[in-house]
Amino acid sequence: MRSRSQHQRRKRIVQAAAALASRGGIEAMQMRTVSERAGVALGTLYRYFPSKMDLVVAVVSEELDLLEGSIDRRPPRAGDPPQRAVEVLMRATRGLMREPELAEALIRSLLLSDVKTDFGERMTGLLLRAAATGDPAGVPADDPRRLVARALAGIWTMEMIEMLRGNATAEEIQARLEISAARLLIDA
């Protein structure tokens, strides 16, 4: 269990890292710069985050916390399960694209990191909450609904890469996600 001051210190570190990444991507997240910006000693930073990728994963987790909070406060209102799932994904897209350098850093970290992350499972849970009824924790790992929600989260990740590369607009991504969701989530 962390004390309140440890929790606040960790939060300052993650916020400093996110701010740096939003201005210059992963390259701007130099550990020394993060520690200075967060007002902690470099050794303290390494105690919380043994590597830069551990820190990037923490920033990804923080972004997911924000998305989950947004979904809790304002659940998707679209009519059917595929439309609700796409609404969640497009809210995530718009949120990330407000800070394209941070979005690129987060996506790159997911692709390149050896650090274990729960990103896929958390996105799957969000999609299940939006598309299916009930608690996503009650959907077994081998349930087709969980498998197709995970596949849809993977499609969205690839679409984000295309957008970050300048090969797709938000409208194009939404159209492809709508087609994918309608085909994948037919029994949600």
UniProtKB/TrEMBL annotation:
The protein's superkingdom reads Bacteria
The family database entries (PROSITE patterns) matched by this protein are listed as: HTH_TETR_2 (PS50977)
Instruction: Give the organism, scientific name.
Output: Actinomadura decatromicini
Annotation: DNA-binding region: 30-49
* The keyword Metal-binding is annotated on this UniProt entry: no
Enumerate the GO terms in the molecular function aspect.
DNA-binding transcription factor activity; transcription cis-regulatory region binding
Please identify the protein, giving its name as recorded: TetR/AcrR family transcriptional regulator
- According to the entry, every stretch annotated as the HTH tetR-type domain falls at 7-67
Q: Does the keyword DNA-binding apply?
A: yes
The alphabetized UniProt keywords are: DNA-binding
SUPFAM superfamilies for this protein: Homeodomain-like
- InterPro entries attached to this UniProt entry: Homeodomain-like_sf, HTH-type_TetR-like_transc_reg, HTH_TetR, KstR_C
